Amino acid sequence: MERTAALSALRWGVRLAFAALGIGIVGALVRQVGAEALCQILRDAAPWLPLVVGLEAARIGTDALATYAAYGPAAGKCLPVRVLVRAALVARAVSSIAPAGRTAAEATKAALLAPWAGPAAATAAAATGQAVTLVSGGILSVPCAAAAYVISGASPITMALVLHAGLLITAGTGIRVAMRAPWLGAIAGRLSRRAGAHVHAMQARARETSLLPPGPIAAMLLGRVIQVAQYAILARAVGAATGVSRALVAEGASMVALAVGAFVPAQVGVSEGAFAWSADVLGATVPQALAIALLGHALEAFFVAVGALVPLLWRAPAPPDEQPEH
């Protein structure tokens, strides 16, 4: 009991330390560029925010579509659309505030959708969602790296994106391989009969789709493309250089920041640092680059509020009396 309490206190201490470090980085950057100049840029950019919010809503829709596709052929029979959309909105909020946000978001969706699809299908879809998020991020990192190379040559951001692409595609493919591998079920069976049965049921579901399922990957890639458009709009809003290449570099900087700051709540300070570090490649001044990152956080905060209100204002329908097996 004492050990559990100590571990819990340690986890919270680490999270608070990361949060304090991130806030400190933001404060230092704001002092460096000047709060007055930064506030003026943000005020000028405000009229563009409704468009960016609308695109983010569309991006959440692509995430729901990817989840739907990850459930395989039986998805249409077991998942009501309103239940899927509700889960996607709640998971979006979780992904913004929880450490390892994407993993936490997939776990949240699995918990919310399991009463309709069954635990095995929900677990398989959540693991697939994590895998295709990595694979789609790796795929998009390739044109991001190419754009960075065209603009800045073999710069640190270019090399970081090349490494990012390789690591994400490898990791995502590895998750899908493990989901289908006999040894995973054997290991779980040695731990307990119940765990073994659950893993075998999950693997049976995972084998219903291809190793790298094209539907979920395509949906996630569409969401990434929408995010590139968001960065192009934000660059225009703050007065920075615009264009496809610059927007791709901004998307790449965001993905690298997300990977580096996975355990920093909301990536506070990490994304600001990444954008300020990449300001030249983005075609922006440091205040403009910092403003793009801060506007991204404002967008995150808006959808955290939406996701927090959804369970209070949008009651989930009752699940079916006969739940799927496992």
Q: Low-confidence segments, ≥5 residues, pLDDT <50?
A: none
**Strand runs, count:** 0
**What is the radius of gyration computed over CA atoms, rounded to a whole number of angstroms?**
21 Å
Strand content: under 5%
N-to-C SSE string, H for helix and E for strand? HHHHHHHHHHHHHHH
Main sheet properties: none
What is the tally of helical segments? 15
Helix content: over 70%
How many domains make up the coordinates? 1
Main location: membrane
Pfam families: LPG_synthase_TM
Organism: Polyangium fumosum
Transmembrane segments: 12-30, 131-151, 157-178, 255-277, 289-314
Set down the secondary structure blueprint.
Layout: H1 2-33, H2 35-45, H3 49-70, H4 75-78, H5 81-97, H6 101-117, H7 119-152, H8 156-180, H9 182-191, H10 193-206, H11 214-238, H12 244-260, H13 270-277, H14 279-282, H15 286-313
Helix pairs in contact: 1-13, 2-11, 2-15, 3-5, 3-7, 3-11, 5-6, 5-15, 6-7, 7-8, 7-10, 7-11, 7-12, 8-12, 9-10, 11-12, 11-15, 12-13, 13-15
Membrane topology: Multi-pass membrane protein
Subcellular location: Cell membrane
Transmembrane segments: 12-30, 131-151, 157-178, 255-277, 289-314
